[in-house]
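Hi there. Long-time user, first ticket. I'm pasting a complex I've been working with (about 965 residues overall). I'd like to know whether the download I got is complete or cut off, because the file seemed smaller than I expected. Thanks.
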Amino acid sequence: MSANKHFNVKWGMAIDLDKCTGCGACMVACQAENNLAPLADASNKQRVPNWLVVYELSNKKSFPDHEIAYLPRPCQQCAEQPCATVCPVVATERNEEGGIVSQIYPRCIGCRYCMAACPYHARCFNWFDPVWPKGMEKALTPDVSTRPRGVVEKCTFCHHRFMQAKDKVRAGGGEVYVRGTDNKLHCAVPEDGYVTSCAEVCPNGAIVFGDLNNPEHRVHRLVTGNANAFRLLERLGTDTAVYYISRREWVRRLGDNYLPDEDTQKPKQILPKRH
Amino acid sequence: MGFDRRAFLKIAAGASAGIMVTPVPWKLLDDVSIWSQNWSWIPVPARGASTYAEVFSKMDPFGVPMKIRKVGGLPVRVLPLPEHPLGGGLSPLSIAEVQMLYSPGRLRRPLLRGADGKLTEISWPQASKKLQDELKNAGGKAAFISGDETSSVTEVLSAFANALGSEDMYLMPSEAQSAAKAAELMGIDARLGYDIEQSDHLLAVGANILENWGTVLRNRRVFANSRPHSFRKDGGEETGDSLSLVYAGPVQNNTAAVAGAWLPVYPGTEGILALGMANMLIEAGKTVAARDFEEFKALASAYTPEKTAELTGVDGKKLEAEVARLLTAQKPLLIVGSSAGGGAGPIMAGVAVNALLGNINKPGGLVLLPKAAKVLKGASDLAEIYRNDLIKFFEREEKPALLLIHEANPAFALPNAQACAAALKAVPFKVCFSTFMDETAALCDLILPLGMGLERLDDVETPYGSGKIGYCISTAVGRPDAGVLNTANVILNIARRLGKDLGFELYADILKAKAGLYGKGGDPLAGGFAVESAERAEAGAFSFRPEVLGKALAPDEARGKLRLAVYGRASLGTDKTGIPPYNNKTLRADELAGSLMSVLLNRATAARNNLADGDKVSLESGGGKIVARVRVFEGIINDTAGVCRGFGHTALDEFSRDKGANVMEVVRPVPEPETGLNFWAKAGVDIKKA
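Hi, the file is complete. Here it is re-exported in full:
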């Protein structure tokens, strides 16, 4: 139901795969920040709610030419969302300045169409009610509601932090959206005033978060005109807000289903823009 | 007036219009959607004002400063503290600390084992009295183990052991112990540190510096700062890395994933690699003014590039290229290390290479740090405590009358874990201060609940690997559980009652005195106390000790069909914590499937052993046996099995139990020739289908 909308502000990430060591700190921080319940047996990955997953990548070569890299995968916050277009109850939409794809739990009827539609496997379903060991519910953060079984959930770019940052600007008497030097509207929240939990804890600085449309933000500078930057399954035309950076060509090639001799730079899109 | 068709249509039209206008059905629908998801058994986060406190992690041994967010006075989140000298982001273990306050494996009350073998809850005064009586009876036959080498609790235990007349004070084996032995053997009266901040080329041999070696957060911050995000225009690549990183080790681990190059070497041959490099540096004209340099040169000359390549498995050309990079770098640095059990020999060889590179006590080099300050009467230096080998202690026929263990889990963590557990059982009275019901606590006669780092006052003095002296005090945040106490205060109290004067009655006073020695004004117990000092110890006249190195690093026979490479992952927690509740979601399906963990073999090794991906196998050595599933992984050297440690807990809670097997059950320690330490980096295993 959600159409592609243009926003002045587009929150996004640049994840440097040459810096990520795959330690999993981002995954743990995500769970603690967003009140995901722990699981005693988390080995059945199809039943494990995780908003952010770190995958191990391999260049598929034999020893000793083998190389590995790690790829953290949050929700890609597509501008052309395969998920929102199939949701029958408008439980997920991209309808707010900033371009974050929402997930409205009370609306969700658990049909999981969105999970089937998401090409990034970024959505997870609560097969069971969340259970915290006795007392651990005292460590829930007050910023994010807990979710019952039967609903789909996903990464929201720590949307509550965006709300808090905007409140801070308003409390200071400022306007949330102001015109920048490029005569376009930008968010008055400072670059470090709104950072996702995963980006905040990464000791390697592998995740850079900010406004992709703001030339003064690091993330904009990192992905604009950078031939080492790529997006996942870019040719689907989902226009995601998560970019990856790597100097290694074999890593960049894993970003999409390229033919062996195909140039990764072009064409970027093979599907029609509306699909 | 009858109810005709017209009346029906009127009512229907009126109802339709009314429904469209009234908010009632929409409100009801909204309420249904909300209330059908609002069950009493689903917790609702508590609300309240947010406050923040700065602390230093006592759970993560790799130096993690952090900020705690509290809501309504209760801690809810761990956040980074980038302004701290060791700060950066967070480790996967430290992030989970708040949740671990409520871990099902927590100990809440003192427990005493009765004659029937069952544990019963007792009060703290009863527990303290029992411990006092047992210590009084044991006297000099009491033994002590500390699992926290950076805390002043170790100093308290050491002073108390000495006051009782006991010579049995031990620390858990660690990289710092191996380094202390290496420094002692080479005549260096200081601690080894590494100034990676100012280095421009870092070769890490066996040291997984970005995951579980040294001051990991600081290492990672330096790595992050030294490597700008890559930017490539059509015109070419913009680079600007100020530090090039190379990793040498048997497994392509987290550090190797981002290093500029990975040099595969057989496990346990890291020291030989360093010796071979030393030979090539000497051939290139490098020299050191040391009294036994000529003897060292003679020893190193035996490790020609060809022989080094043969013994370590490293590619000869890559070896030459790496030595060339060491020679051309402005500030090269070599770090030799392991996750524990690597022995002192390889570190000595690493010191030798750094000496040849001329970087000792130079910016970006190997730095010598002054010894830790002491304030307690009669406490031993850390270096003295490191001389006592815990493995030898457990192998001894004669057992102590009492064994007191503080924050350590030897029954799980030591090599030949089952034998250690058996030796532990043979001690007449065992008491432990532990936060969790771990494998060691489960064997003890008196179990005393210790507060987590977030619940207690404690300190951290210069974690191993740091390039500077640092001293931090961590204060309790939130309300500590009434059932937990601090080891140091309990021991100080008992010491006083037994008439042993340690010079202090309260742990807080010890930390205040120490803070004074490290020199910073203000109230050190007010929270967030951190001091850093760039003070260096004199390099002095050190020796290469080739007569020791030659024997310690001598190649020996294989101890099994395959070499065993034990590696670690930070998200698996420590031997003391087990896997934090949130962290087992970080394990990939190819690391743990159900309760079966993976053993890494490369394709050629698997084929040579008639094994394929997914085969269930048993790994055996010296009577120990573990079961795993083969994962064909090309990032491991030939004829080597890679096993992750941290799995296989039998105690703790459901988040740690019944997940894989404890690799330490098939690791056998052997005495390292000449150094007096036991080591286990050269372990081997037999592998067969299970």
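A couple of notes from our side: Chain B touches chain A through 90 residues (CB under 8 Å). The two ends of chain B are 89 Å apart (CA to CA).
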